[in-house]
Write a structure and sequence with these properties.
Mean pLDDT: 85
Radius of gyration: 19 Å
Largest sheet: 5 strands, antiparallel
Structural class: mainly beta
Keywords: Signal
Length: about 400
């Protein structure tokens, strides 16, 4: 695995645009993105769909130790650019911020374009590591850009998970939109025996053949949730179950934390999740899959904000849902049946959001877990109704504000 990391990292050229040496960063209000408008388009995003290629997870940026960039915190208002692997039209990244201060948001977007009014992850917790999966088009200059704005010092960690490329010659896998299905819940014995996963322990569960995932699927898209954890920890999706050197998601102590995770499926159709610290309950919901057989193709869009409930001053009430039209704008065509969105819950209580096709039966799954203390974001593949809408349900006892940023869709 180390050899694969070094080889992949060698294909990446990193630079910081106009960044001074390590410095503290000043911040705007609790994760609100900047107000300027955006007309940027990623020049090399084709109208046709893309196929997926996974890689051994590779650490390409770590400002804590100078991996890929000189040592030092990322200052507020500055942009770090990363050159993508040759031939990639979009990349899949696991991005984490380590906050020495608090109240930071990060925007990831195509390099060489104007920064969009969106956010990908928010860190409002003193000293915490917060992560989110990001799928972003490669800009016309061959790079991906990272912009941070916050009230405290922040370190940035980026792992390359996979990439998308054009056409059959790319030799990748087609993507499929699975049914929203819970395949693991250690609290009640779904997919594995009842009982928490202990420190440096792992749980193995089947995904192939469930939720519409074909038996020959090679990779899976899961929403993984860490719950009932007393300690901060990280969880890694790793088919061999060995102690890994990378994280798929980072969880704060005493807080349910969810994150989209792309994971390899082993030869028997299983995925293994490894827990680093303390004892935790683990939950996994299927969102999609990748297969060498027939399937759809991914079309990334310029990251675009579709909804900000702060504009109207009204969020989603407790045990209520909000319906949102996602097709016909922001580059998502009518007829789309699955859309990639980043959902951000604003502070308002403890609970979770479930996103699903509007008008359909709400699935027994969750998309974003949040609490009263800070803004929380998660990437999600969401089925789309026949009229081009999704529905977002608030399972909490208080009204919750919501941001929705579209990232792409499945074509074909």
């Amino acid at each position: 695995m180390r050899t694969a990391r070094i080889a992949a990292a060698a294909a990446l050229v990193l630079s910081i645009a106009g960044i001074l040496p390590a410095a503290g960063i000043a911040q705007a209000d609790t994760g609100r993105t900047t107000s300027h408008s955006v007309t940027a388009q990623a020049a090399n995003v084709a109208d046709s769909g893309l196929v997926y290629r996974s890689v051994a997870p590779t650490r390409i940026v770590d400002t804590r130790n100078g991996t890929g960039v000189r040592y030092g915190h990322l200052p507020s208002g500055e942009t770090l650019t990363v050159r993508a692997p040759q031939g990639a039209s979009a990349v899949v990244l696991n991005v984490a911020t380590v906050n020495i201060g608090m109240d930071t948001f990060l925007t990831v977007y195509p390099g060489g374009t104007k920064r969009p009014t969106v956010s990908n992850l928010n860190n409002a917790y003193f000293g915490a590591t917060v992560s989110n999966q990001v799928v972003v088009p490669v800009g016309p200059d061959g790079t991906v850009a990272f912009y941070s704005q916050g009230a405290g010092k922040v370190d940035l960690i980026v792992d390359l998970i996979g990439s998308y490329a054009k056409g059959p010659q790319a030799g990748g896998e087609h993507q499929g939109a699975a049914q929203q299905t819970r395949v693991l819940d250690t609290r009640n014995g779904t997919g594995a025996p009842v009982g928490q996963v202990g420190q440096r322990g792992s749980v193995k569960f089947k995904v192939a053949g469930l939720g519409g995932v074909p038996a020959d699927a090679k990779d899976i898209v899961l929403n993984v949730t860490v719950a009932d954890n007393f300690y901060a920890t990280y969880v890694t999706a790793d088919p061999d179950g060995n102690p890994p050197s990378f994280a798929s998601l980072n969880a704060r102590f005493s807080a349910a934390t969810a994150q989209q995770v792309n994971a390899k499926i082993d030869d028997q159709g299983y995925v293994t999740l490894y827990n680093h610290t303390g004892s935790v309950d683990l939950i996994a919901d299927v969102q999609g899959y990748y297969s060498s057989g027939a399937g759809s193709s991914f079309v990334p869009t310029t990251p675009t904000r579709l909804l900000d409930t702060r504009d109207s001053g009204a969020g989603i009430g407790p045990a209520k849902s909000l319906r949102l039209k996602v097709t016909g704008s922001a580059g998502v065509p009518e007829g789309t049946r699955s859309v990639l969105v980043n959902l951000t819950a604003l502070p308002g209580g403890n609970g979770f959001l479930t996103a699903y096709a509007a008008g359909s039966t709400r699935p027994n799954t969750s998309t974003v877990n949040f609490d009263w203390s800070g803004t929380t974001a998660n990437l999600a593949w969401v089925p789309v109704s026949a009229d081009g809408s999704i529905e977002i349900y608030n399972h909490s006892g208080s009204s919750t504000g919501l941001l929705v940023d579209v990232q792409g869709y499945l074509a074909g």
